[in-house]
Amino acid sequence: MTTAIRRVVVGVSGSPSSLAALRAAVDEARRGPSELWAALAWTPVGGETGYRRAPCPDLLKLWERQACARLRNSFDEAFGGFPGGLVVRPLVIRAEAGRALVDIADRPDDLLVVGAGERGLFARITHGSVSRFCVAHAGCPVLAVPPPALLAQMPLRQRHRLPALPVEAYAGTDVRQ
């Protein structure tokens, strides 16, 4: 006997792979009476250790506002806004992405959806694999969504660039942890 999924947790970063995961998560959430928990995890530039060595609260606030704007922008790029007819709980969390997603999707009847990212040695060396961490450590089912085919057609230098948002986009952000 299978149990109904009550929460679909998806990791969002704004990358093309995470947008594919977001679309898949919305499809999964619509299949049953499920809530969509969209989580964007972020850490200060230079990591937590670097920030402890040279703390700057103003920069910390800016980075958090940027993370909130990236989460909102991801929904705008994928759907033109938050999808209707679905309970969406946006989360912006200051933590390493893999650990944060595993901690959020902590119920056996959750479904964790992550973008699998690019394949290949170069991609594994230059980027930590959040999807591999989640598959290895999650206590719930994990759906690893392959990268969109369009990603392979993009020049290498553009594949991981996040869209630049004007400073005005960060004003008035209200998506919080």
TrEMBL record:
CDD domains registered for this protein in UniProt: USP-like
One Pfam family linked to the record: Usp
Sequence ranges assigned to domain UspA in this UniProt record: 5-146
Protein family: Belongs to the universal stress protein A family.
Name of this protein: Universal stress protein
